[in-house]
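Bacterial bifunctional deaminase-reductase C-terminal domain-containing protein
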Amino acid sequence: MGKVVMYSSVSVDGFVADGDDQPGPLFDWLSSGDVPLDDSGVLKVSQTSYDYVRPYWDEIGVTVVGRHVFDMTDGWDGKPPGGIDHVVVVTHRPAPEGWDPAAPFHFVDGVAAAVARAQELAGDRTVEVAAGEVGGQVLAAGLVDEVRMDVVPVVFGSGKRFFGSVDAQHLLADPDVVIQGDRVLHLRYRVRR
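Predicted structure tokens:
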């Protein structure tokens, strides 16, 4: 079974979106370099960021998101982002009316059930959990193996927190990856058990 990784770009003060639910400059580093990160031609990063991010992205088999992210992105028009095979949506509601049942999206009630379904779909590949409320719930449930952050030099002051509303202490190991890219610092922590 693959590992479960909580991941996102994040402001220095710990937010994945501002107070208006917008990412602001959090993703600017994804278009500020000269090395294409994917086939779109839109995402271009520094060579240093490419060498770290591309292999990780290639490991991901399934992404777990909350219904809020799904709704904000219009379900990526039924096509998982970044070449991911499947998306598991944590929600208490059914798929939207008119949703294509053949699209590789799975609507699951509860984070434990969502992670279990994602691991089943991913096999030995990585399950990525989007940071924020759902990510924080998965961490609180003890289901996260690793936390990855792309820390961007911006201070939001308020907004959507990386760890959501987690209200208990969770210990991480010392970072085993610290890589400086252009306008981003890539960090990776293993979750201590």
